[in-house]
Amino acid sequence: MLHLLLLFLKKPKPLNAMTNFDKLKFKNIVKYVFKGGKKMLFNENNNNGIANEVKFANIFDKKLVKDLDIAYQELLYNIFNDLKEDDYIECWKSKYKEKADIKIRINGNIKGISIKMGEKNSVHQEHVNSFSNYLLNIGLSKELIDKLRAYIFGFINGVQIDAQTYKKRRYNDIVALEKAFCDYYTRTNLIIRFLFKGKETQFYDADALIHGTPTNFIWATKSEILKYLVDYPLKIIGCVKVGPLFIQCRNRNLQKNINTMYTEEYIQVKWYTMKKDLYLISKERQKKSELLQNVSTNDKKV
Predict the structure, then answer these.
(1) Least confident stretch, 5-19, 132-146, 244-258
(2) CB neighbours (10 Å) of residue 202?
(3) What is the value of pTM for the model shown?
(4) pLDDT for 83-117, tens place per residue?
(5) What are the beta bridge partners of residue 249?
(6) What is the dihedral of CA 83, 88, 93, 97, to 10 degrees?
């Protein structure tokens, strides 16, 4: 966590210019870095979510493909090549913070699965500095990146305001960002980063996404989701988003709560309609499957 201290010191203030909150923030960062402070930046892992991931891993682990329920078999056949019903499965919960919550190994090949549950799903969190660097690397202008950073922190003329007020006062800046994220190359790269690849430090990509619990879930592969989101209708509505993926501040911390003082430095990406969108993807998959079956049946008749 030494990077937290470096981030704070990047633009140091003289002691006589520091507010009481600045001093408290600095003191807590030092405590966290050097004295083993126990508070997390924010709780990224919901306990119920972790337990859910473990349950999914246990369902796959140490089974043959044919021993699984049909829904699980269908998922495996869609992400593994040359799969056979007698193939042995190994599965485990990821030890790292990466997009693949569980890993599945069959015949030496490993695939990662991202697992979500509940509503208003958060799919990505990242420090605004690393995200800014990434946007610069994929070709966004410094002017646009400055607009995004201003939106995340919510400052106008040195005063920090709430998100809705900021959108009203800087509507043109929000629309400029939204239009920039409509670019095919940009939105494709952002979708991959937000959902499948994550930051540069993460090890395994996600090859599919599951939403739900082991007894009631829906899924889609990386290629299915990517096609659906890249082709998502481009509507300018005055929000910073990529298709249905909304980019916002993790917590603007307007009340200067010391327990959430770091969260305003992080972006959060929310996929509010994930369950509905995965359902539409699965319906399209089902239609294609039925069409292929009908073609096969007709060919046999001929």
Answers:
(1) 5-19
(2) 18
(3) 0.82
(4) 999 999 999 999 888 999 999 999 999 999 999 99
(5) 267
(6) -40
End-to-end CA distance of the chain: 68
| Tally of domains in the chain | 3
Q: Domain range holding 8?
A: 1-39
Residues 6+ apart with CB under 8 A from 15: 23
Whole-angstrom Cα distance, residue 2 to residue 50? Answer: 27
pLDDT in tens, 139-167: 999 999 999 999 999 988 888 898 899 99
- DSSP letter (8 states) at residue 67: G
Which 3 state secondary structure label does DSSP give 186?
Answer: helix
Is the domain of 147 the same as that of 57? no
Residues 6+ apart with CB under 8 A from 108: none
Report yes or no: 102 and 112 within 8 Å, Cβ to Cβ: yes
CA-CA distance, 60 to 132, in Å (whole number)? 38
Does 198 lie in the same domain as 71?
no
Is residue 66 classed as helix, strand or coil in its secondary structure?
helix
- Taking CB atoms within 8 Å and a gap of at least 24, the contacts of 31-37 are 32/1, 32/4, 33/1, 33/2, 33/4, 33/5
| Look-up of token digits 């605004």 | 128
In a domain, 296, yes or no: no
- Among all chains, which residue has been given the structure tokens 């899924």? 219
Q: Per the structure block, which two tokens stand in for 57?
A: 């891993």
Is residue 291 in a domain?
Answer: no
Tell me if 80 is assigned to some domain.
Answer: yes
**Residue 192 and residue 59 in one domain:** no
